[in-house]
Design brief:
The complex is a heterodimer. By secondary structure, chain A is an all-alpha fold. In chain A, 70% of the residues lie in helices and 0% in strands. Chain B contains eight helices and no strands. Chain B has a single domain, classed as Globins (Globin-like, Orthogonal Bundle). The chains are: A mainly alpha, B mainly alpha.
């Protein structure tokens, strides 16, 4: 679906190499849950999500965020076949987790803002464009086996 | 709709932008056109040549309007009424584009403020800008 140019791939992989998934994972999922509180509906078992600091400090949020970004990191190695990479996860999110695919778009956008926080001026419009393409591709792949 | 804390967060971030409306606005537009090329259709003269002076000028105008919204957070409808008319009658920007602009706005703030751009600020600004977009598209039909 998405065609990643050589420039896109370079922007995506070089930036990702500098990302600490341990930190960025919790930050990304935490920000999603704070900025879009309705997304908390999937995480009843995570314990306290009662305030921004509770969410950002919640170890289950951090662990799950790391899991999500680790999976994303794998996808980055295979940008030309996101649908293949995320096929099983798509089925899981549809059949077992019942996650509205809109949530994938929200998470992707939040990840982009976290990357902007981390990289500042280096996160140029062109780099942002490559990354928005990336997260849109992931969201689409994750929704591709919904039925 | 906006809590006292949210209002404080919004004002705090605005204080960092005030005085730099043109620069922030130009970058906002540049990101919008680069990331979401379909939006260029709404700015034909601006996006064709992407002349720095024109981007700064239009960016300044857009961010000045955001600044006015910040000053009137409690009564956006009244403060933005002329702009709402403009968008409904003249500009007619499809409402689906406002989230795209808001995403670019978030990235502008995040990339400039970096560690200072707390999760609370991001949440308050997303809520605020979404409210502005609602008001700007409210008179469409």
């Amino acid at each position: 679906m998405s065609n990643f140019t050589a420039e896109d791939k370079a922007a995506i992989t070089s930036l990702w190499a500098k990302v600490n998934v341990e930190d960025a994972g919790g930050e990304t999922l935490g920000r999603l849950l704070v900025v879009y509180p309705w997304t908390q509906r999937f995480f009843d078992s995570f314990g306290s999500l009662s305030s921004p600091s509770a969410i950002m400090g919640n170890p289950k949020v951090k662990a799950h965020g790391v899991k999500v970004l680790t999976s994303l990191g794998e996808a980055i190695k295979n940008l030309d076949d996101l649908k293949g990479t995320f096929g099983q996860l798509s089925e899981l999110h549809c059949d077992k987790l019942h996650v509205d695919p809109e949530n994938f778009r929200l998470l992707g956008n939040v990840l982009v803002t976290v990357l902007a926080v981390l990289h500042g001026k280096e996160f140029t419009p062109e780099v942002q464009a490559s990354w928005q393409k990336m997260v849109a591709g992931v969201a689409s792949a994750l929704g591709s086996r919904y039925h | 709709m906006l809590s006292a804390q949210e209002r404080a967060q919004i004002a705090q971030v605005w204080d960092l932008i005030a005085g730099h409306e043109a620069q922030f606005g130009a970058e906002l537009l540049l990101r919008l056109f680069t990331v979401y090329p379909s939006t260029k259709g709404y700015f034909p003269h601006l996006s064709a040549c992407q002349d720095a002076a024109q981007l700064l000028s239009h960016g300044q105008r857009m961010l000045a309007a955001v600044g006015a919204a910040v000053q009137h957070m409690d009564n956006l409808r009244a403060a933005l009424s002329p702009l709402a008319d403009l968008h409904a009658l003249v500009l007619r920007v499809d409402p689906a584009n406002f989230p795209l602009l808001i995403q670019c706005f978030q990235v502008v703030l995040a990339s400039h403020l970096q560690d200072e751009y707390t999760v609370e600020m991001q949440a308050a600004w997303d809520k605020f800008l979404t409210g502005v977009a609602v008001v700007l598209t409210e008179k469409y039909r």
